[in-house]
Amino acid sequence: MEESLKNDIEEIKIDSASETSLIKDYFKEDQGGKIKKLADLFGQSELELKKEFASFKAKKVYKKLNYFIDGRFRLNGDVLDILNTATKYGFYGVTVYPTVLPLAVSLLYGDSVKIRVLIDYPYGESTLKSKRSEIKRAIKGGANECLVCVSSYLIKNADEKDFVKSVQKLVKTAGDGNLSLLLDTAILSKAEIERVINLVESSGVYSVVLSRSKGVLDKNLLGELASVFNGKIKIECFDDINCSEVAVSTLLGGVDVITSEYCEDIVLDFSKKINACDSEDVQALDKTVKE
Predict the structure, then answer these.
(1) What are the helix (H) ranges across the chain?
(2) pTM, rounded to two decimals
């Protein structure tokens, strides 16, 4: 994570009991009357100015969210609504199955929202040839990135040199598209995960994405790995995060991007805390709102 962005995120303070949550202590305490002076300058109340500051910081977090669209259970109209949501809030991107790619490209082509195709999910047991074929099809179809699931069996049993060569072939197949690897932490130990990351960090892999097929993804493990590999390779997570507190703490732990099926819930939770009102009265903060 870039230092400037980390500093921005660190200024977010979540306190659900406070009507002016998501603002740094010094800002809330108004040292030396600076906030009052700024409020007077802009013709606003101090509370309005604090909310605008919090909204600005929340949008910094939105740029680190990747909306997972599980197209297996959705009609095209629902998928289009989610794609529009990703654009509205300025998310980093969307993650879709190959079958949803044409629809995503038709709506997001030329937009700043990245399109990541999920390949060989969830077990990664397809052959290398099959994975390369899917990557070629995805990039040709307009995907910006590919997220390829890695076989836990191969991690535990394959020769290291052969494993690295196979990853390099996947990266080469992706060409100008970013190639990320998805690892299942429910099956792999911390030592095995570290070994994989060490093996692939110089192979051109864009990021390593950690998920958990069973149970809850260990946020401490995420933080430890993000710290170990800081500046070497991006560490992301693929998890069912649905609230602002967990999203912020995960990013503060060093995770670069959060992929979740509940990104809109995170946005609404931010809005609820910033506006200090009931969820049914919330108007979610999006990137089109004047700052």
Answers:
(1) 3-10, 25-29, 34-42, 46-62, 76-89, 101-108, 128-140, 152-157, 160-174, 190-200, 219-228, 244-252, 263-275
(2) 0.83
